[in-house]
Here is the input.
Amino acid sequence: MAKILLAEDDENLGFMIQDSLSDVGHEVVWKSDGQSALEVFTKADFEICLLDVMMPKMDGFELALKIRALSEFVPILFLTAKSQEADRLEGFEVGGDDYITKPFSIKELAFRIQVFLRRSGSPSSPVKSSEIVSFGQSSYDPVNLTYSYQGTNQSLTQMEANLLNLLLQHRNELVKREFILETIWGENDYFKGRSLDVFITRLRKYLKNDESLEIRNHHGVGFNLLIAETG
Here is the structure.
């Protein structure tokens, strides 16, 4: 079970989430505004953050940015009543890993949390989880979630790491979009597909200096992580 930070200003919803998740064994620290949530985040270790978007003192997007500045690893799931695509994509741009749209069932929320915890504990990897993966002129440390190229290190979020691991596991092969979505996010829908595109863009940015690497897009089908022979 996990220690969860819940930032939600709706008292009824916050109480229901805290009570329900506590009943299944999670430890839930609930704060009703973004500033209080940030303060408690700096004082304890959390395994997942559930952030409402619209909150007093600090909204969920700003809170996510500040959490990401402190931790690249902790999964962030937005609780949002917003349905517009731009709002959802903004959540991914500021470092969120997933979202769930209000109204939602506690059963669905608990399932999403378990998906994150399962993948955080055992991300897909082509080698033993303690081994550093070398590819092209780069390397990836699956323990510390760090991508390295010529002495420069880039910390990855858990979802970025999961995506890189999956592409490495199928290096030089076409990996279909639906397979990626179902493996990493647990479902295949339009908005999860757009979030996948955001994460692919992030990985391309990290890998761009290694000329032996290319993430190639096959429009509407999937992606290849192409690794050229070196030396």
About this structure: The first strand starts at residue 3 and ends at 7. Residues 122-128 have pLDDT under 50 and may be disordered. The CA atoms of residues 130 and 143 lie 6 Å apart.
